[in-house]
Design brief:
It contains 13 helices and 7 strands. Helix 3 runs antiparallel to helix 5 and helix 10 runs antiparallel to helix 11.
């Protein structure tokens, strides 16, 4: 019954294959019919078996070159054709001779098909190697560009931070001296607002430049994902976006810098909320990839999507498609650096008008010995790895540097 139930599906696949190779199929069908007719003509008219069988090699070789070993059925057809014609049009030759011709058809068809399949496999392997090499070169170029941008950003940020602090200090002093009804107070408020925005950009630059500092400690990825959801929930509620999570119950503990991974995920979720604002959905999910022994965190949204021409620019510092004043273009660059410093990978799949999925792959590392784990946990505590207050500050800082 199982075999019978699969017949319609098999017929559909065969029909699709014939339509895909319609021109070649017609060529071989006509050529095969002509060769079969020639064999019959020679056997019935002239009785020259050896000459007549030579016509069959042309469709057999062509089929092998086009479809590989799958075209061996052509050789099988002509082998059976010779055997069937033997009692109808005897040539006086022995049965061994006709069987030998049939076996030669099979040998030639299988050999040509095998050579073609090996050549096709080599071509596919070479193409895959070329694509992998191109991807490796692109990643290397991105890493070099980000490294140079990080060095430049660090220098620029330190040079700008001090003057900004001075501007803000004097603005606050002047605001205290002015009365509440003074018209100049609004101008000072504007200066404070813009200077604070510049300071947030500088903070993003410093975060981007400090990506090489990773303090790993055992962390619960499921708890981290839930914390990211709770941090972004108020903003999502304001723009009517539903944020959900899907994390397996038994997700192993991971050796990561929880503070940096939290900031990276908050940036991705904030981007997704911006894209899905106005009644959309955002889902944060985690899973184990048994293939390469890593944990994968996906941030999905059903928002506006990303144009194809912008996908290659997403992780470039200062690239943003947001309106002026709503994004600095540092969020995804920082996220990219955080993932790379954890020896992971981040990819994006998006279709304009349908949504976007960012996938972050992080390797599963064994936990260190007890002494090292305690030390790393202490370091994580000192740097605010598990502090809710620090997480809130990270959320506020990262929301100023988001790019999409």
């Amino acid at each position: 019954m199982a075999i019978v139930s699969t017949i319609p599906e098999r017929c559909k696949r065969c029909y699709a294959w014939v339509r895909e190779h319609a021109s070649r199929s017609w060529v071989l069908a006509v050529l095969g019919a002509a060769c079969a007719a020639e064999i019959v003509y020679f056997r019935l008219g002239l009785g020259i078996g050896i000459v007549s069988t030579h016509f069959a090699y042309l469709p057999i070789v062509l089929g092998g070159l086009w479809w590989g070993k799958r075209a061996t059925w052509i050789a099988v057809f002509f082998s059976l054709w010779i055997v069937v014609l033997r009692p109808l049009a005897p040539t006086g030759e022995s049965l061994v001779a006709d069987v030998g011709r049939g076996l030669s058809f099979l040998l030639v068809g299988f050999s040509v098909g095998a050579v073609r399949d090996m050549a096709e496999a080599a071509r596919r392997a070479e193409e895959a190697t070329r694509r992998n090499l191109e991807k490796a070169q692109e990643k290397l170029a991105d890493a070099e560009r980000l490294a140079s941008m990080g060095q430049l950003s660090a220098g620029v940020a330190h040079e700008i931070n001090n003057p900004l602090g001075t501007v803000l200090l004097y603005c606050h002093m002047l605001r205290k001296e002015l009365g509440d009804d003074d018209s100049r107070r609004a101008d000072l408020d504007m200066i404070v607002s813009e200077a604070t925005r510049c300071k947030n950009i500088v903070r993003g630059l410093l975060d981007f430049a400090r990506q090489s500092r990773v303090s790993k400690a055992p962390a619960d990825m499921a708890a981290l994902v839930e914390e990211v959801r709770s941090l972004t929930a108020p903003r999502a509620k304001e723009v009517r976006v539903q944020v959900t999570t899907n994390v397996p119950e038994r997700l192993p503990s991971m050796m990561i810098d929880a503070t940096q991974i939290r900031q990276m995920l908050v940036n991705l979720v904030d981007n997704a909320i911006d894209a899905a604002s106005g009644g959309g959905q955002v889902r944060i999910s985690a899973r184990l990839d048994d293939g390469d022994g890593s944990a994968v965190v996906d941030v999905w949204d059903n928002g506006c999507g990303i144009p194809a021409e912008n996908l290659s620019k997403l992780f470039t510092p200062f690239f943003t498609t947001k309106e002026m004043g709503k994004g600095t273009g540092l969020g995804l660059a920082i996220a990219y650096g955080v993932v790379k410093m954890h020896s992971g990978d981040i990819t994006v799949q998006s279709k304009e008008g349908e949504g976007t999925t960012f996938s972050v792959s992080l390797p599963l590392e064994a936990e260190p010995d007890d002494g090292t784990a305690d030390a790393l946990s202490a370091v994580g505590a000192e740097t605010g790895a598990s502090s809710p207050d620090t997480a809130e500050q990270t959320h506020e800082a990262s929301s100023a540097g988001i790019a999409r």
